[in-house]
Amino acid sequence: MIHSVTSRANSRVKMAISLEKPSACRKRNRFIMEGPRFISDHISRNGLIDFVVVSDSASKESVSISRSADHMGIVVIQVPDEIFTSISNTETPQGISAICPIPEHNSSDLFAGGTVLVLDGVADPGNAGTAIRSAAAFGCSGVVFLKGCCFPFSPKVTRSAAGLNSVIPIISLNQMTDINKKHSDYCFLGAQANGVPLDKVEKNLTKPVCLIIGSEAHGLSDVSVGLLSDSISIPMTTGVESLNAGVSASIILSQLFKKKS
Q1: Is 3-101 a domain of CATH 3.10.129.10?
Q2: What number does CATH give the domain 107-260?
Q3: Are 48 and 177 a contacting pair, CB within 8 Å?
């Protein structure tokens, strides 16, 4: 049964509205996912959902998904459009959001033999989300967010990641100190403009890779540079100074994936 809720004082409505802020997400250990396609994919993967919010004027697809969720025993509340607008973070919402638990992982879950992506000071949610999406697409075993990065479960990151931040293991660390000692079976590569071209480095790779990507503005932190087995670069035409973090991560991860295939 879909429950009609018309008050902002409702506890579920208040929670959904609060999850726009990273502090509330961390406190409640919850994040919000928007859009019928992302939520449908999340349900099909047996992803956990606390409850679903659907608006009075939701799209047909959103209504269909909310009914499916209800039949599966997931709590669904229907709210007026003006309340849903307070919950949604999109300019043209399709009328459905899901409140989900943030998955919990540790470094051992990530450093388990697959490629690990580390984002170092990547503050832009679009770049971070793109990097997560590519990490999932190219078979990474996890993503690490270091100090200075955006919150990996913010609404904007979730949209850019196509909801895949709920699939690939993600952890947040202040810095990578001692990570290379703890996981000495990994080769730590950092993307830097003056690095060795990627195609020359990958020929000699015998260990799984931990790839560290810095922000376009500041590059890698000193701590991250101190961990590196090697610095790598992406060959580019002259006159182009750099690529953004999301694109850089995607290109390098694609090449590493090809090597493994």
Answers
A1: no
A2: 3.40.1280.10
A3: no
